[in-house]
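Before the break, one more example. Copy the sequence into your notebook; we will annotate it together after we see the structure.
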Amino acid sequence: MIELPSFITRLFPYQPRFAPTVFGRMHYVDEGEGRPVLLVHGNPTWSFLYRKVMAGLAGGPYRVVAPDLIGLGLSDKPREVSAHTLRRHGESLLELVQGLDLKDVVLVVQDWGGPMGAWMAARAGGRVTGLVVMNTALLKPERFRTTAFHRFSQMPVVSDVAFRLFNFPLPVLGRTQGDPASISGDVARAYAWPLRKVADRAAPLALARMVPNGPDHPTVAELTEGDAWARSFQGPIELVWGVKDPILGRALRRHREVFPRARVTETSAGHFLQEEVPEDIVAAIRRVADAR
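Here is what the structure looks like once it is written out:
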């Protein structure tokens, strides 16, 4: 059993649970009863990111499940960057959903949780019936233009030093926010704590390098499969976006085009909008869950 420090448990009072997957042991939170709501985070965070959303859903008719991607949070941490692929992450999510026998799922995704969740849903045999999409790139790129952050991750040696030795980008998460203070103090410490050991820091670099920089990138096949599922999805959809996100703020336009019937909530939040506008996310989840 992992013993969390008090500065985390004070903010994140949830019982740790673990499930075996093909990619390693996955930590997850499983709270409440009712329609399943699956909250999937991205790089370099963990289920702690959704604590305010989980609190907002507490007491409702929902079974809230929030996993940690393998390599992050309290899940197992493969130590080789090459171990991480979109398919392996998608497979581990699929194993969790199948192992818990989650059906009629409202899938809530952000950052890498979008492509991973979409790939999982494409293989889940109709288990996902509602969708809330936030600051992600759920769709296959039209043009392979990466950000400075992702170009930096491809630089040999210097990126390894930054990500491995200095735990990049954990110390600068606040810079991606509408309100930089939203990730500071004990909150910032809580994001960094699971990656306090240098040997455990493969995932943030691996996930950054998984962003495709060309049509031959190994991630493109899985992105294509997830894209096809998303475009064909007929259930209720909402988009909740932090428009001050320097990484994916502009991605809202394309998601609007692909999901023209989706309700859209634009906010002044940044990339990790769960920290800044949890009430808007909770409201969207409730509307999707109630739309039968």
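The longest strand covers residues 24-31. The mean pLDDT is 96. Try to locate both features in your own notes.
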